[in-house]
Amino acid sequence: MTASVADPSLADLTRAELGELLDGEPSYRLDQVWDGLYRQRRPLAELTNVPKGLRQAIGELLPPALKLVRAQTADRGKTRKYLWSLRDGHLVETVLMGYRNRTTLCISSQAGCAMACSFCATGQVGFDRNLSVGEIVEQVLGTLQHVPPAARGGAVNIVFMGMGEPFANYDAVWAAVERFHGDMGIGARHITVSTVGVIPGIVRLAAAALPVNLAVSLHAANDRLRDRIAPINRTYPLRDLARALADYRRSKRRRISLEWAMIDGVNDRDRDAAELAAYARPLAAHVNLIPLNPTPGYGHSPSPSGRIEHFASELESHGVKATVRVNRGTSIDAACGQLRADKLVSIQRGGRARRGARAQQER
Ligand code: SAH
Fold first, then answer.
1. What pLDDT score was predicted for residue 334?
2. Going by CA atoms, what residue is nearest to atom 1 of ligand 1?
3. Assign residue 329 a region: left if phi > 0, alpha if psi is -120 to 50, beta otherwise?
4. Do the domain assignments include residue 150?
């Protein structure tokens, strides 16, 4: 019998739920399993202080939701992209970026995305479904298991900047955040939720107890352009978004980041900088400038680096702080906005089929 999508995986369970399942076992068993999985970040099979029969029983009852299909590396092994298949065959990706004293995991919250930002590879493919808590949490546990054991306990940053819109799957995202924070011991300041500007999510986050970081993917500071490149702007226009962000800042007292993909001739002129500065300054927001990553369905190019530097200094001259982000993993399509797992594989399948057809014709 194979597990269906609806059957929970071990990472779907809260500590209390696992406790109920282990009812009848000595009370320290729950600690052993839970701490092994989340504090020590080891796979169930490696928790040798737990009897093998019990590990097997748990593994059979609550099998993993994710299966590793492919791991790719770039930047001399410092950037790794993991492609996972879900039980229903959908694919999601996770990116691990290793730095000297920390590891950043860029995780997915949905299979595909419904937000349809024109320049984003995931948006170009469309939406499949929300991920469950377990599917989100397993991405983190699964990728960390590829980090040398000595480094697993090191500082980990988690950013919801993979596939999907986290605020379109708020409950599962938040349950995962609580697991990262409460059970894995990852500080709220090391967790970043990135949204295209889904206002109800921002309102809920403002009322949440944990002060995680909020990043907003702005990319345009006038409605005409933003309607075009981030169509959710037609539902949540810039002015309403600014109001929600101001409320968020008042209640959380946390600095907001605004993400801005630098697109040649589209949003990288001096007047774009002036508009962005006028938007960011009252919010005291920090701006991250990311050179556009070329994607198959979007004809534009990244701004030249000189223009990005100039744009950053324009912002500074208007009193707004900006950081130019260096892209990691471009060569393996692991950079921001390049994740499009479903299409990737179907193209490969199609490619094989086409090659096969050609080979047959030639024969
Ligand atoms: N839906 C969320 C999180 C996923 S996208 C959001 O919109 O924030 C993560 C980040 O990558 C966002 O800032 C997004 O705007 C950016 N991004 C998407 N496509 C990109 C591209 N082609 N080049 C550069 N950044 C891109």
1. 76
2. 165
3. left
4. yes
